Amino acid sequence: MKKANRLFAFGLGLALLMLSSFSVWAAQARKKPLTHIYEVYNSSSTSPARKHVVGRMIKKLEKAEALKAGRGRTPAVSAVSANPAFKLINIDIFPNPAHAKGKLTVRVQVGLADLVEIHIYDLMGRFSRIANLTAPQILDAGNGKGPQYTYEYIWNTIDAATGMYICAVTAKKAGQADISSINKIWIVTQ
Question: Which of 9, 45, 85, 117 is the most buried (most CB within 10 A)?
Fold first, then answer.
């Protein structure tokens, strides 16, 4: 009987140790950007059991990020189906032309990037807006390219003057050439 109690105590202690080490790992993972967690999930060295747990964590973090950003919606698909390859897939600016006193969305799909910079200039070359985006969402934009890692910036054009603007988008990833694109934006009065 004493041996059974010692085995039970040992097993319980081992289980508590494993649970506490997993809790420490989970807490550290929550502090890291989603891109790191996606890389852990997509790594070939990640065990199936850990993949399952990380996949559940990704879904919770994506939902929390969507709510925190005020989008009020969760991404349409999970990270499992999105392609992390760093390449230019799509850049959408809509509505274009945009009405003054409205909102304009710049949506960039470049796979997993370390940083996506959006610089908006007026025709005199002055900065109008600068945005640095690091946390993508997974979105199927309905453009026939399927679910993609998507970086989205919403510009409130209430203080923008009527006219043409230049939107320079640069995506950066360590060890790879930058992806750049220049687009025109029109702001019109109602």
Answer: 117
